[in-house]
Amino acid sequence: MTYRVVILPEAEAELEEAYLYVREDSPARAKRWREKLLVKVKSLATFPERCAVAPESAALGVEVRHLVVGKYRMLFVVRDRTVMVLHVRHAARRRVTEAE
User: Fold this and answer.
1) Which DSSP string corresponds to the chain?
2) pLDDT digit string (tens) for 85-96?
3) Residues 54 and 65 sit within 8 Å (Cβ to Cβ)
4) Which residues are CB-contacts of 92 (< 8 A; sequence separation ≥ 6)?
5) Which of 21, 34, 40, 45 places its Cα 20 to 30 Å from the Cα of 91?
6) 87: left (phi over 0), alpha (psi -120 to 50) or beta
7) pTM for the predicted model, two decimal places
8) How far is CA 90 from the centre of its chain?
């Protein structure tokens, strides 16, 4: 069973922000990090339910899952045959709220 994976604009912006931050220290490492992250996100096309339910789910009232890659979490929801990546966040950041 294959799902379509969509990275929403806010998640794309967060990914770009994180990439630029890492790039300040090491452009080569930033490129490798970003490529690894995108490979992992694409892997959600197969069995996205393998990822744990995110702690934010209870407060948001919707099943949000997260894929953890290193120190980053990709928060996503599964709707029908589509995985929608909502946020890309450093694990040290506060949890996502309804306002976001």
Assistant:
1) -B-EEEE-HHHHHHHHHHHHHHHHH-HHHHHHHHHHHHHHHHGGGB-GGGSPBPTHHHHHTS--EEEEETTEEEEEEEETTEEEEEEEEETTSPPP-TT-
2) 999 988 776 555
3) yes
4) 71
5) 45
6) beta
7) 0.87
8) 10
